[in-house]
Design goal:
Residues 1-20 are annotated as: Disordered. 19% of the residues lie in helices and 44% in strands. With 372 residues, it is an alpha+beta fold. Strand 5 and strand 6 form a beta hairpin. The protein is elongated.
């Protein structure tokens, strides 16, 4: 809206000059408002201050407004895209703010907005404004109704439609993964999805999961999230991963690929007994590094997982047998072989405190018998 320059104020003459003013000067000093007929000392856009305050419209605001909000994640459709908003009142005030038509040329503007919920999906917004126009202070208040339209955003629509960009195949090297390992993998996946969502990856969700005897397949909405999942599993549980790609279709002239992450858990797990570097080792942990205990002398054993290519799996401590303890010496113990029932002398473990006549757990291998 355009503004006109104010009518210049005619200075009044001093008391000594009042008696000398002419009839023409008297007319100029006492201005008449053409709108209401009152005398005034100044005209604003050719009318007096009171008439100008009544006729000048600071802003216009529609009676009813609409806002699109996703009922699942709370995102708000704004400027042709879905944006995150934590507070529904922010969305309501933004709708009122962007639909206000404010006059140009205002000075010292102050605006207040006060949303009041009438129902969960209808808000009344009271708007008040103070401003100055050519030295005249003006005030206006108005009310609008903002109606919340519930509409699924693009990401939630994809999730509901089974959208996925990646498949994570949980398997184990040269063995079947245990139920505990599969459950731990699923737990790590859910943790990573929550973390990626907080970082802004809206496609970080699990579309579907299927478990089999030899592992599980998990369908992930985001390839980026799938890559972070595999990295997290390797950090905690060890293993390796390889990627392959398949063409899923074409959209807007671009080819769309899906990624398959072949996740292989370590060949050895906690409790396994292996032969490596000429030693019989009970595995305690096998992530990026394998840690364990040498059963021959109870010393600690460490090595990188990549050095286990020639390791031999002997069994698991769950396969241990009970043997009768015959006698205890300083560095050795005598047991009754649970298979041949012959008395056998084996290495005494550190912190051994069993007494003769009791039963202890032993593990039989081709490299000898070891007490656990």
């Amino acid at each position: 809206m355009t503004s006109l320059a104010p009518t210049p104020k005619i200075p009044k003459k001093s008391g000594s000059e009042k008696g000398k003013k002419t009839d023409k000067e008297s007319v100029l000093c006492d201005l008449i408002c053409p709108e209401c007929g009152k005398e005034t000392d100044i005209l604003v856009k050719n009318i007096c201050r009171d008439c100008f305050s009544q006729k000048f419209n600071l802003f216009e605001l529609p009676l009813v407004l609409h806002a699109r909000v996703c009922p699942q994640c709370g995102a708000h459709y704004h400027k042709s895209k879905w944006n995150d908003f934590e507070n529904i009142e922010e969305i309501v005030m933004l709708a009122a703010q962007e639909n206000m038509l404010v006059q140009s040329g205002l000075q010292n503007v102050s605006v207040g907005m006060h949303p009041h919920p009438r129902s969960p999906y209808i808000y009344d917004v009271l708007v008040d404004m103070e401003a100055e126009v050519e030295g005249v202070k003006l005030y206006k208040d108005a009310k609008t109704e903002v109606r919340i339209k519930r509409e699924a955003c693009d990401m939630c629509s994809r999730r509901a439609g089974g959208y996925f960009e990646a498949i994570i195949q949980i398997r184990a090297g040269n063995r079947m993964p245990t139920k505990e390992e599969v459950n731990q993998s699923l737990h790590l996946i859910n943790e990573t999805m929550i973390h990626m969502l907080k970082k802004g990856d809206k496609l970080a969700f699990v579309t579907d999961s299927m478990t089999f005897k030899d592992g599980a397949d998990i369908f992930i909405g985001s390839t980026n999230a799938g890559r972070h999942v595999c990295k997290r599993i390797i950090e905690v549980m060890g293993g390796s991963v390889s990627e392959s790609y398949t063409l899923a279709g074409v959209k807007d002239g671009k080819e769309i690929f899906r990624t398959t992450f072949a996740m292989r858990l370590p060949e050895f797990k906690k409790g396994d007994v292996i032969f490596v570097d000429g030693k019989v080792v009970e595995v305690r942990n096998c992530a990026k590094r394998l840690t364990g205990v040498c059963l021959s002398d109870s010393s600690s054993y460490f090595t990188d997982s990549e050095n286990l290519k020639d390791a031999k799996h002997l069994g698991n401590v769950a396969d241990a047998q009970n043997a009768v303890l015959v006698d205890v010496e300083e560095n050795a113990i005598l047991i009754l072989d649970p298979v041949t029932y012959e008395t056998v002398t084996i290495k005494k473990p550190i912190s051994f405190n069993s007494v003769p006549g009791s039963e202890i757990k032993v593990f039989r291998t081709e490299y000898g018998i070891f007490a656990l």
